[in-house]
């Protein structure tokens, strides 16, 4: 951009300098020629009015081989007098343009090249009362000479001007681009008012992206740290128990207990790793090509069946309501969605609690509601439970084998389906989570 602006400024400068110089040369040429012809006219008049023409010998004597050359031509074009040389040796002058012009119009002018390129001959011819034509001519520096004489000065002037323009254009370009450069160097201070209001929308976009990038990087880092931490705990247990067995420090009853612990912790690791993989799968934005029309009620029924044993174990009743409702989605995603919500509703419930799953059309849209009479979620945690690894009560979640990734997966699935999720919860009373599917019902 800098180079481009620089080149454009320089092009404008060079074009204007060269045109100005050429125009100056042209104007001075016209002035110079006019001056010469004015002079010639005056001389001619003077010669005519002083009557010196009558006295040709004196005229010859005074003007012989002088700069000013006087010629007298009669009606036939014959040269009757010539101050520079002998008139008898001159050819007929009728065809000379200035003479022709003088015969027909009264006066005529012409410029002709001289013997050298550096000189020009200027002619002025005037028809006198007696019908003869008097022609006065003078040699002067030709345009070419004037131009070539001026060339060195013009060249130096041009060079100096171009150099100055170069400096100015550099300065201008730098000062034009300075604010942009400053913005680029200080991404953190983008909020400050900038010199060019035209840039404001760009800066806003860049700022937003910049913040998103920083936020994402922070989130990714936090996620990695969390995953590592979550992996460490079960692995430490597995390592500890197996070491005890290896060293023969466990009785045969212990061995069974330790094996159970190792088994439980390995399962925990597997769940965790599966959840992490699933999250990253959902993160990489796939297109919706794999979407098909699915009956959400059917999916919910399968899930409820699958979780029934779990519910019984927790002494919770699990019930499905509603009717067949179609959505465009992916089977696996819908299964995970319903499973995770029901699993939470059972897990964070009380003895003799209830879970009701409803699939129905509401306002023309398919809706999934999972309600429980469980422990509820305190207001201050409600926003955050969809974050990865966020658990309200760490010990309760862990003791039931939770990884804290369930609702993060739910959030991703909801986003991928362009659905909306809402939560209502009261501590000690229960929780109600509703997912509304946009589009066809
Ligand atoms: P995972 O689902 O990965 O096995 P998790 O259940 O702990 O583990 P999430 O499903 O993401 O993780 O839930 C996050 C937290 O939100 C839970 O730890 C729990 O504290 C709280 N929570 C979720 N659903 C309910 C609910 N229905 N009632 C009360 N608390 C809930
Ligand atoms: Mg869960």
Q: What would you note in describing this structure?
A:
There is one protein chain. With 441 residues, the chain is an alpha+beta fold. It has three domains: 2-145, Beta-Lactamase; 199-281, Signal transduction histidine kinase, dimerisation/phosphotransfer (DHp) domain (Helix Hairpins, Orthogonal Bundle), CATH 1.10.287.130; 291-436, Histidine kinase-like ATPase, C-terminal domain (Heat Shock Protein 90, 2-Layer Sandwich). It contains eleven helices and twelve strands. Adenosine-5'-triphosphate binds next to helix 8 and helix 11.
- The amount of beta strand, in percent, is 15-25%
Structural class: alpha+beta
| Topology order in helix (H) and strand (E) letters | HHEEHEEEHHHEHEEHEEHHHEE
Q: Which ligands occur here?
A: adenosine-5'-triphosphate, magnesium ion
Low-confidence stretches: none
Topology:
Blueprint: H1 2-49, H2 56-63, E1 69-73, E2 79-82, H3 97-105, E3 107-113, E4 119-127, E5 133-141, H4 143-185, H5 200-246, H6 252-283, E6 292-295, H7 296-313, E7 316-322, E8 326-329, H8 331-347, E9 353-362, E10 365-372, H9 379-382, H10 394-399, H11 406-416, E11 419-426, E12 430-437
Parallel strand pairs: 7-9
Antiparallel strand pairs: 1-2, 1-5, 3-4, 4-5, 6-8, 9-10, 10-12, 11-12
This protein binds adenosine-5'-triphosphate and magnesium ion.
Adenosine-5'-triphosphate (ATP) binds at residues 275, 340, 344-345, 348, 372, 374-377, 385, 390-393, 397, 402-408, 431.
């Amino acid at each position: 951009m800098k180079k481009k602006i620089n080149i454009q400024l320089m092009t404008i400068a060079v074009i204007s300098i060269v045109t100005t110089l050429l125009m100056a040369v042209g104007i001075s040429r016209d002035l110079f020629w006019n001056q010469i012809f004015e002079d010639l006219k005056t001389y001619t008049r003077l010669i005519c009015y002083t009557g010196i023409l009558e006295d040709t010998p004196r005229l010859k004597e005074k003007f012989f081989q002088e700069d000013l050359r006087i010629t007298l031509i009669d009606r036939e074009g014959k040269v009757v007098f010539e101050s520079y040389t002998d008139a008898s040796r001159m050819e007929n002058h009728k065809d000379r343009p200035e003479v022709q012009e003088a015969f027909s119009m009264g006066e005529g002018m012409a410029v002709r090249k001289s013997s050298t390129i550096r000189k020009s001959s200027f002619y002025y011819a005037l028809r006198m009362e007696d019908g003869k034509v008097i022609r006065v001519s003078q040699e002067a520096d030709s345009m070419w000479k004037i131009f070539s004489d001026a060339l060195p000065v013009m060249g130096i002037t041009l060079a100096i001007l171009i150099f100055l323009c170069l400096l100015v254009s550099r300065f201008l370009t730098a000062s034009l681009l300075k604010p942009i450069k400053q913005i680029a160097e200080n991404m953190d201070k983008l909020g400050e008012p900038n010199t060019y209001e035209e840039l404001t929308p760009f800066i806003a976009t860049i700022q937003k992206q910049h913040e998103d990038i920083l936020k994402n990087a922070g989130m990714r880092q936090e996620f990695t740290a969390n995953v590592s931490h979550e992996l460490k705990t079960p692995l430490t247990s597995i390592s500890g128990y197996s070491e005890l067995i290896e060293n023969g420090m466990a009785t045969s009853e212990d061995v069974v207990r330790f094996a159970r612990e190792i088994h439980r912790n390995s399962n925990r690791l597997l769940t965790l790793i599966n959840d992490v993989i699933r999250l990253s799968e959902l993160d990489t934005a796939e297109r919706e090509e794999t979407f098909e029309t699915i009956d959400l009620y059917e999916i919910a029924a399968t899930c409820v069946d699958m979780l029934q044993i779990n519910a019984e174990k927790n002494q919770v009743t699990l019930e499905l309501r509603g009717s067949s409702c179609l959505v465009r989605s992916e089977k696996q995603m819908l299964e995970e969605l319903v499973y995770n919500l029901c699993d939470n509703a059972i897990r964070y419930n009380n003895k003799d609690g209830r879970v009701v799953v409803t699939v129905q059309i509401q306002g023309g849209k398919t809706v999934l509601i999972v309600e429980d009479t469980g422990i509820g979620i305190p207001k201050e945690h409600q926003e955050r439970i969809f974050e990865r690894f966020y658990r309200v009560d760490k010990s309760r979640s862990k003791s039931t084998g939770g990884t804290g990734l369930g609702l993060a997966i739910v959030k991703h699935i909801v986003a991928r389906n362009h659905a909306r999720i809402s939560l209502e919860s009261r501590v000690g009373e229960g929780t109600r989570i509703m997912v509304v599917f946009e589009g066809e019902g």
